[in-house]
Amino acid sequence: MIDEKKRVGIFSLTCDEGCSIYLIEIFNKKLFDWLKKMRLVCFLTLSDKREIKNLDIALVEGVVTSEKDKKYLEKIRNNSKILIAMGSCAINTFPSGQRNNFNNEQLEEIKDHLEKYNFLPRALALKEVVKVDDEIIGCPINEKIFVKIFEKYLI
Amino acid sequence: MHNHNLDISISKLSKIEGHADVDIKIRSGKVKDIGLRVMENMRFFNQATRGQSYNSVPQLVSHICGTCSIAHLTACIEAVEKALEIKPSEQTMILRKLAMYSMMIRDHALHLYFFVLPDIFNIDSALDLPKEKIKLLHEAMHIKSAGNNLSNLIAGRAVHAPFEQVGGFSNEIDKKKISKMIKELKSVRSYIIKLAEIFYNCGWEFKRKTNFVALVTSDFSFLEGKIKSASGSVIEEKDYRDHLRNVVLPYSQASGFEFEGNEYMVGALARLNLNKNALCSNTKKDMKKYIDVFPSDNIYHNNLAQTIEIAHSIDHSIELLEKSNFKKEPLIKPMKLSGEGVGVIEAARGTLYYWLGIDEGKIKYANLVIPTAQNLINMREDIRKIVSDIYNHKSSSEELESKIKKEVEKIIRAYDPCMSCAAHFLKINWV
Fold this sequence. Notes:
heterodimer, A: alpha/beta, Rossmann fold, 5-stranded parallel beta sheet, B: alpha+beta, Cytochrome-c3 Hydrogenase, chain B, 4-stranded mixed beta sheet, 3-stranded antiparallel beta sheet
């Protein structure tokens, strides 16, 4: 029998993980219903499985702040049919990319850290790095909008 | 095998908040190095807070961590209010307690059901619970939902709550929803006792001599009191910096802390060890068997302690909701616009310290001490002992690596670390 369940991955780049935490609250009501249609193949908050392969839907929160984030996002993109940016950090870099708005004095203070940990010159939104198929606004994600958009791809 | 060299790496530890790696080096049969590395990228809140207005900074620091956001909001507001001589009303303090309880209920439930239970049942994920246990997952959802709904009612949302402000709450409580909320809280009580029974009987034990530190509050409400330690210290909130010392941890985007020169533990276990008499009377009555376990130096009892705290958070919330007559109140204005203030609260994972300097209404400096950062050295030393014990007692080397990985992950999860929080305020400027 062919497994027709959608393969879903949930990923956090640089952020407070507020969207994925809020998503777990949305799960309170929705998870059992969604599990009939999906298989969570990568969500480190709930499981040790790390299969970033043949994903139908990738939900990604956070900003791309370092080279490591960038490579990770590219890997997710290359292995996902649909990639959805989750929350305002992923969509427009705020608040986790707040260093983009720092003045010279603030930038000077963080300069050594940026170099030491291979940070990018500025924090980037997902769409500045890869193709993004859809966006779910909010900080954290808006529950109604999440359900509407996610269920559209779950069918 | 006792003279072996062995390197073990756990990359991106799963089922914790945020990202951490562990590297273990065994040389000539001895544990040489334990690298517990926080792998979160910095988002530079110490710089970002500077220059912000006193009434917008709490919402900014709420973004340090999704799951602990109400704790950051509450501690920061306390520091601002102390600095600017704002005395919150009695009703505001009740609402803050309820907001904190709502966070404890959902945050502890997430940790216990989704991060710890898989280790108890030897499965990868709570979603893989066998059919006869799946009811536990439904119960977890009900408990989290009750916590989430309490956050919505009191603070507007569970993550980055909009109503909690400097000087009070911006929105009036919808009184029509209170009786339904009480009913929902009561409906999940029996699940907590079932969960406590699991941790009470699981037989997990790990002991190593250490110290416990917590803010001891008169009604176990996590908000106001004195900092106490198992070693006998009693400290005023404002004097904390004379007792904590920042320790730089190499190769990590976080730093650790010592209390009066030694490693220590903060969190639910410390709170139960130091303050169990202050628990709500209903909790004391129905959870007596489990509360009698404390004081305990078994680190795994942090799980049982968190379970008791969910029960207390539910019971005290019911009591507060039943007896309070909430009214619309204006936000209290500051008496002055410059000053220095310390806010100390108990967050889900332990004592959270905020120290703010404010000049003409703008933040001049902000120093934070995060619970997980305080636990990092204690965790590292526990890992060292666990690895040594396993190495010295195991005979087959094939089993060795998997056994070490499993036990190390288990002890780290018992601390319920939050790496999103730990990666901030790397540089502490004691001015």
